[in-house]
TrEMBL record:
Cofactor(s) required for function per UniProt: pyridoxal 5'-phosphate
PROSITE patterns per the UniProt record, alphabetical: AA_TRANSFER_CLASS_3
Keywords from the UniProt entry: Aminotransferase, Pyridoxal phosphate, Transferase
Provenance organism: Malassezia caprae
Alphabetical list of Pfam families matching this protein: Aminotran_3
Protein's name in the database: 4-aminobutyrate--2-oxoglutarate transaminase
EC number of this enzyme: 2.6.1.19
Membership in a protein family: Belongs to the class-III pyridoxal-phosphate-dependent aminotransferase family.
Amino acid sequence: MTLSAAAQYGAQHLTRGIGRLSQHVFVEGRGSYLTTDTGKRLLDMTSGIGVVNLGHCHPAVTRAAQEQCGKLTHAQLNIGFNGPQIELLRALQPIMPDPSLDTFFLWNSGSEAVEAAVKVARRSTGRPNIIVAQGSYHGRTAATAAMTRSKTLYGEGVGPLMPGVFSMAFPYYSQMCMPHDTPTDTLVDVALQRVRLLLQQETAPRDTAAILLEPVLGEGGYVPAPPAYLAGLREICDEHGMLLIVDEVQSGFGRTGKMFAIEHAGVRPDMVVFAKGIANGYPLSGIVASKATMDAMPPGSMGGTYAGNAVACAAAQATIQAFRDERVLDNVAARHTELLEGLDALRAMPVGALIEDVRGHGLMMGVQFRAPRPIASALTQACLERGMLLLSTSAFDAVRWIPPLTVSREELAQALGIFKDALEAVAHAEGCL
Ligand SMILES: Cc1ncc(COP(=O)(O)O)c(C=O)c1O
């Protein structure tokens, strides 16, 4: 592909450390589509990695941000509250997965919020260690890279990383090196036994502040945690006075068909980390826990120049309102069924033999392959050539479906058609058919 002049400049002057799916320069976004500087229109099944859940430039969110820009853009939170921040807290509190979660801290990015969660967990329990899941992704900053277990890439060569982090088993067949048809009950039993062993052999409960996990592994393969596993972790945390923290940065704000993925399991978390979808594209993140837990932090120990920015908070409030006004979760349920049906139909075709696993909730769906050679990366490029953005995920051979939650029936049908064509093309090119 020949690069536009702007793309060439970007490739020269932005570090190659970023890495990217495409070399396009995006100049406009509307709903489920992005337009490039060369006028190409792409169907977006990535949502900016789970951020623009209401589609690109949702009119109500854009309006709220524009209006706020003319009123007040920055009122630093260690100096005073800002209006939209308070209004946002009023909108957020009722949608939290448990009424005990009533005290917030707002920040900018997911990684920063994860780091804040670690500090609160350590300070409120007086214990240093954190347990994360194998296959987890919590960010690329120095501390969160230490807690990320999906790929070594994020922490490789930049250590020493933050100490006091231990990894527990996660009941996903590939992650546990077990056959695809291993019953979920077996995966859960073995994983929970290993967590208990971890607490006997590697990090004593009295030294362990929290178990931190994504209720759906994101960069680790789009794998939902089975409810029995989450219930087992809750029990272990209760037994040992440890906090159960869920990182809903990617799975939150309707992505899985409920406002938060943990709701599928009906398990109470002690703390929730959120970001991405909260403001539909404006940088905002946060954590929430009980007042007693959060207020373990002394005044002044939390804050940040742009934390809880007024424009981002106004956008977030409009985002939450749009979820209600436009019955977005109903759309997620309908499109989920169609996506499953489409993928099932594909599995019934000759090329479908390459699909090993289809999994997920709502519009957070993973598809894993069993090709003689890995094909996920070639598949995403074949989709790109056909006008669609789709991301791979994890150290395993998998792709992830993460369309805007507002995606229409027609757009999804078009996406499934492109996926089928691309899969057939890759299968032929790789000699898999
Ligand atoms: C589950 C999870 N946690 C944390 C992060 C880090 O968020 P950010 O990139 O905003 O720092 C991500 C980002 O993809 C994520 O998916």
